[in-house]
Amino acid sequence: xxxxxxxxxxxxxxxxxxxxxxxxxxxxxxxxxxxxxxxxxxxxxxxxxxxxxxxxxxxxxxxxxxxxxxxxxxxxxxxxxxxxxxxxxxxxxxxxxxxxxxxxxxxxxxxxxxxxxxxxxxxxxxxxxxxxxxxxxxxxxxxxxxxxxxxxxxxxxxxxxxxxxxxxxxxxxxxxxxxxxxxxxxxxxxxxxxxxxxxxxxxxxxxxxxxxxxxxxxxxxxxxxxxxxxxxxxxxxxxxxxxxxxxxxxxxxxxxxxxxxxxxxxxxxxxxxxxxxxxxxxxxxxxxxxxxxxxxxxxxxxxxxxxxxxxxxxxxxxxxxxxxxxxxxxxxxxxxxxxxxxxxxxxxxxxxxxxxxxxxxxxxxxxxxxxxxxxxxxxxxxxxxxxxxxxxxxxxxx
Length: 398
Prior knowledge:
The chain is of the alpha+beta class. Helices cover about 40% and strands about 15% of the residues.
């Protein structure tokens, strides 16, 4: 039975943590080819997955590590492969190398990867080669669900052949370039919020971008602020100096000095805009990406689980057991196209039954989102969401 892309990604993440890929050939054969195959490409057909592809046979001997042919005559994707950890330090020269490949044959896509880091370029975009980067994935850090989405959107055979991948890449590149411009103007926008008439940060961003010829809505500015907060949330905090005998204990807010002037900028804006939902992690575990739960504790009982989806289902079953007459409240969770829970199988994506409750749960989400939804479900029924404690395989947390 063919491996699912999600299973492939999760197994690769485990192997990356144990340094299983020792050289470039390991990455090409045991990692990249495996991902490509899970995305629908026939790795056993050299006419479709062409390794060591010579770009201009009559002129030089330079070869692309892997070329993917969506049609029989013309490559759609060039993939340049390096050993794990051998890409970032040499990225400018590698980008120059791939740029030269694409000068002779302009494929829509080029990918540079060391197996852990994947950089996606839309070759037909404007600017220097580095400016054509429209997305990137770090399998050692990113959630499996997001990685799966990126791979399927831009590298699956079906999406590449149909032209959908190229259309989406154009849109993403445009958004990426605009967001870079927003990031450049962010300091001056933040400074505006400290001067009269003291605009909110979204309004200040809109003003700054308007001066550069861009038109933005408040929702788009808020989305940008959220993305900055999500990125900063994944960055480990700077180590704090040790306490000394001279440390004064008090009930005054004890925060690192840079925060004494106020909450972190993005968090302050989230509160102003009513976006104060927090994201709690297991103590001692920085994130859940690429990890496996073995059990969880709730209301003084421990329950074994074998996957994140199993954890979400078990939490729902417990809540239904304890609140049989009110469990319909779960249907109010979620917004947009798909609900978190529903008795209508068509209202959730990748539905799975919640025991014998008659409900289905939406499972097309990653580990981080599963934990967030489990906590929201618990809170919906009057419990403290932090009463959910998760034990991760290979960790000491309980």
